[in-house]
Amino acid sequence: MVTLAALLASRAGPGDAQTSDLVSKTAFRVCADPANDPMSMEDGSGYENRLAELIAAKLDRPVQYTWFPMATGFIRNTLKAGKCDVVMGYAQGHEMVLNTNHYMVSTHVLVVPKDGDLAGVTELSDPALQGRSLGVTAGAPPATHLARNGLIGAAKPYALHVDRRYESPALDMLDDVDAGEIDGAVMWGPIAGPLVKRDHPDLKVIPLLNEAAAPRLFYRITMGVRRGEKVWQRELNSLIRRHQDEIDALLTEAGVPLVTDMGDAVREVGQ
Predict the structure, then answer these.
(1) Which CATH superfamily is domain 106-207 in?
(2) Engineering a disulfide at 158: which of 97, 105, 169, 259 sits with its beta carbon 3.0 to 4.6 angstroms away?
(3) What is the mean pLDDT of the chain?
(4) Model-level pTM?
(5) For residue 52, which of 257, 224, 261 has the smallest C-alpha distance?
(6) Which residues of the chain form CATH 3.40.190.10?
(7) Class assignment of domain 4-104+218-254?
(8) pLDDT tens for residues 65-99?
(9) Distance (Å) of CA 264 to CA 17, 106, 123, 209, 218
């Protein structure tokens, strides 16, 4: 019997057929950072690890990891080298990979003491932030907003590109908020939300939904596959579509703040 995959391969050009052959049929091969807490961890504790287990179960394949620090050369040394077939979390539109359909939309957040005088702040233009020291990842989109609102002079920068096996800027930033070293932290929600839920009960995560000026602070997150892997992309798209409720539940349990596709409201899952 002629299978659908065979029909698709027969209609593809030589390049498409060749790249499709690189995808493992016996394992769900994931490219991941071994120390990207709370997303991917070599001990399997990250929520992207749990997402990988979910997708692998639907494919009836075991998960197999290729570990490499999420820094310069990550895609070149993992996905592009054919050592693995998917990156579990990748921003939509990045040219280094072929994106699946997005499975979540999230945003940068403000993290402050939940009982402090900044707990009611919902936007970076709030006068209450003037003169306050905020942590921010150097070079990340929120830094532009801090500069626009006159907050960058008092801000404390934390490194963006590091080997997280040896440095943990996100963990350091939240520890500094708890210790009163900084008044708050502006962070990527899928990092801040789970870490606060797990380790920082006295902090509050506030999604930044009211920053109208560029650059945008919300992003649609996809799985990334090799460029040209259209058959594999469509297979993952189908899995995402059919199991979105389970993905939503997994992310919500982890503490990831989910927002609408346009980044203008918190998305309430399961209601």
Answers:
(1) Periplasmic binding protein-like II (3.40.190.10)
(2) 169
(3) 91
(4) 0.89
(5) 224
(6) 4-104+218-254, 106-207
(7) alpha beta
(8) 999 998 889 999 999 999 999 999 999 987 899 99
(9) 41, 10, 12, 5, 9
